[in-house]
Amino acid sequence: MATERSTRDGSWYGDGEGVNQLRGQLFKWGCLGAMLFGIVMVFVLLAYVAIDAIRPLTADPGWHLTFFLTLVAPTSALLGYYGLRDRRSGLVGAIATALPAFCLLVGAGISLLLVDVFRPIEWFGTAVALVVAVGVVYVHRRLRTEPAAFERPIVTVGALVLAVVGVPGVVPSLSQLFRNAPIALNPATMLLYSFAVPVAILTGLAIARRRESRRDGLIAAALTVVGGVLAVIAAPAVGIDDYLLIVLSLSIAAPTAVYVEGVVRERDHLVGLALPIVAYVGTFLGAALVEAYGFAGPEAWLDWQFLTSAHSRFPQEAGIYPALVGSIMMMLVIVVSAFPVGVAAAVYLEEYAPDSGTVGRVVGLIEMNIANLAGVPSVVYGLLGLALFIRYADMNTGSVIVGGLTVGLLILPIVIISSQEAIRAVPNSMRQASYGMGATKWQTVRNVVLPESIPGILTGTILAFGRAIGETAPLLMIGAAAVVFSPPGSFAEKFSAMPRQIFAWSHEPSAEFRYGVLAAGVVTLLVVLLSMNAAAILIRNRYQRRS
Amino acid sequence: MSEEPARPAFAGENRTRSAKESAIKWFLFVCAALSVFVTLAIVATLLFDAIEFFTRVSPLAFFTGTNWSPKIGEAFGVLPLVTNTLAVTALSALVAIPVGTASAAYLSEYASDQVRSVLKPALEVLAGIPTVVYGLFALVYVTPALQAVGIPVGTFNLLSASIMVGVMIIPMVSSLSEDAMSAVPDSLRQGAYGLGATKFEVTTTVVVPAAVSGIFSSFILALSRAIGETMIVVVAAGMSPQLVPSPFGSIQPMTSAMVQLATSDLAGGTAAYYALFAIGLTLFVITFSMNVASNWVASRYREEYE
Amino acid sequence: MSNENMTAPNPETEAENDDDAVSPTPGSGAVDAGDLETATASSRTVIESRDLDVYYGETQALDDVSIRIPEKQVTAMIGPSGCGKSTFLRCINRMNDLIDAARIEGDLLFQDKNVYDDDVDPVALRRRIGMVFQQPNPFPKSIYDNVAYGLRLQNKTENLDEKVEQALKGAALWDEVKDQLDESGLDLSGGQQQRLCIARAIAVDPEVILMDEPASALDPVATSQIEDLIDELAEDYTVVIVTHNMQQAARISDKTAVFLTGGELVEFDDTQKIFENPEHQRVEDYITGKFG
Predict the structure, then answer these.
(1) Across the interface, which of B196, B206, B305 has its CB nearest the CB of C123?
(2) Is residue C18 in some structural domain?
(3) How is chain B split into domains, by residue range?
(4) What is the ipTM of this complex?
(5) pTM summary value
(6) Which residues of chain B lie closer than 8 angstroms to A370, CB-CB?
(7) How far is residue B12 from each of residues A370, B8, B15, B16, measured CA to CA in Å?
């Protein structure tokens, strides 16, 4: 193949036929442009809907100026500093700032349940009953050191069931007994016992484990209870019912305090804590100043009135409250049903299922089946819910429990698949170490695999819940109400959920509904979704970094 | 204070422990098998009620009829619904497939780690937005925008809905295609660079052809999602099925028809009620077979490198 | 990449090359007896490096390498792992550009032009230099398309069938695959795949073929086929081969360069001299297996 060639080829440099790069550059920028087209379009639409909901342009210039000076400028300056100099502190600061806000959302959700679904006395009764049940199990354990085959699980489950549920129709549960007993306690006291004390115990445990000191844990628990009492005392001044304030304040204060304590104790990026201080002080200062100077804030569609009212013919008075409560109740049903079943299925498929043989092949079919189920349209799941729960099992049309079970079935494959991935990610060496010490399979799963994989499982599950909260089609099929004027009183009542309510509003002819109320509803839904996704991603990042 | 065991400590407790272990294993198995139950339940309800429907309306009339007006004229021809579904899918594919594949190529071959860490989450945001919100975007923002530019679309139209369906499935195409492209071994790229290929040539003549099965399977999966998409079309595309759909007017695909039947006052036992399940069965069969096809195509590519 | 302390600069190796001008070099058929002109032409330097240093981030991979590689001969580069042999190879066709952290100082000349000059297009450069990798990496395309790939890239598609046939013959693969050109390149055995990669490289008629341990992933039979092939290839191309296998280097190469720790080129000379009577003690120690 030797051909005559000159010593110097000349084709690869200078004015030789350099390879044309134009096509490549056009392709690269074209691809980037296409991707940005999709992303920018959606973000522009999100901005539109946020502006329509909040209408920042209707506020006084003075209002804007005040908040710019007290909040926006200092916070941005700090963020810029973090971005350039100290990224980790910025992350700590962001978490410390977002945590109270996120806990406020969670606390608000719990408060909603207390106001409209479970009354304080029901919480109280359940809490006391649970304490009694735990006591029974503990005593049983101490007395019977050599239990027969299934004695322990039977006693545990039995005690819990009798305490909370009882035998329907035959034996009233312990919690019901407490509820009906003539105890003269006001709601605040009841909640102090049934909410503040459990939170105090959790806080105390977290602190005790971290500081490795039982005394510190007890101090933390005591401080939490004191905080609850302070909330009761301060309630009239703040203007919120005292038992609600207990829930709100402890929901925000306990996790935030635990997080901040961790940061302070390890002296880890303390500078980051400047961010929440600047952000919150700035917000309060700004709010006080606009109050003092009388600047009018934006005439937002998304305001307190929107969040606490029910639907109305008049756009100014319409609100999303019943739908919000409905969504929360539906999520409760899903958490109780889809989450345990999904994780259990994932544990089986990853830990117990054989790979070969007949059972192995059946298991392979099950896994393929689950993957295919994840791709079935949501409207078909709605149809399944209609046929299975409403017609066959004769449950109430459009009730919370039917909605929860149907959407739960929808996200079940997603929960299973993501839990499987999390369990698979646990290194095999850990399992081997456990088996090597003579642990049984269940002991290994319970003590080694599950704790290791919980962050991953939680991440995947929270993302699945985010999907569930936005699903509309199944709710339409099972007959969820288009409009309700009050939240559902029980789980068997007809309900509406946020996306369902939003969909109903889209049929309203008036422009104010379409561009105002609708936008407010969409933003509410998106804020809830965003916080759930952010929490999931944060959990994933936190535990990925640790390992 | 325990007495000396007559047998060694590691024998004998077996029976209790293994009974407990067995029970746990069976409980977990039941949870896993629940998924099979769900599939069977779906198939059973769809099948039985669809069969009930076909005793009242002949399958021929259903599958070849061109008029769908279940309440007014008792006409149950499903063809308009099918063509409308195909129209939505085709138009959304025009948006999603180019944008998704281009995004995947950029993210996999051109983007630096920093850029990728910003753009990938941004794309995931698109996947997380509820479909009812997309529907509202189409109705409230996109349609007026199209009208402002001079495109003669009605309040409810196929075009806006399809655009938003396309945008919604972009992350599916992009993420799966990117996985496929990233899985192409780097040694192939090195070989091409060694022969004097530019990055563009490496991407288009080596990487994409090597990943084509995975890319193709992502297309099928995304299109299956578009076929099953409900809320965007219900909100933004209207409720009148057209045998030959026009992008500017209102249409009604299969999913939308199901919602309409379910939310209207239907007496149980009428043909209209059972029609719901007949459409549901058709929809289920189409999407299920597309998902299976996508898996099959994807599994083919796993053999290509060995 | 080991980062041993830097030893004293390697002794001049350039002076030794001039002695080869007339004496016959073993193993290559490039010298016509009695033809002084051809003899001079056959020792023309195709690739030359002067004081070449390469850093990956903070680690130094090549230390002050100066070498002149003659045309149409097989030059082997041997040495323990991590001593910069592959790095040097990849500098020649600027494949190291693909690694962000790589930094090059010094000069590397191909056809008497520094390949790192600003007006050099690395893509065009790589079209004049062929590369064969350690792991055979044929594209998941047909055998025909694999060989034709480079030709199509350069738009040299006239008489494509003939060129493909010539390349496959030049890689000693034609007889085995002439009836299955449409089948996938991945269906071939390891040794056949590597020969396919060689065919793919020579199809575009490069001046130099760089080979990075081309036989190390192959079984002994395939290895010996590759070695025979390299012998033939040197009649038409300059071959630079990195190898772990000293015996292989002794068998097939005309000249040998020994790289030792720190990316240092310790000695470069005729193969026979290196293996029978090297100048440096360290080289002798390496050859006789005292380390590495």
Answers:
(1) B196
(2) yes
(3) 11-55, 68-300
(4) 0.89
(5) 0.84
(6) 35
(7) 40, 8, 7, 9
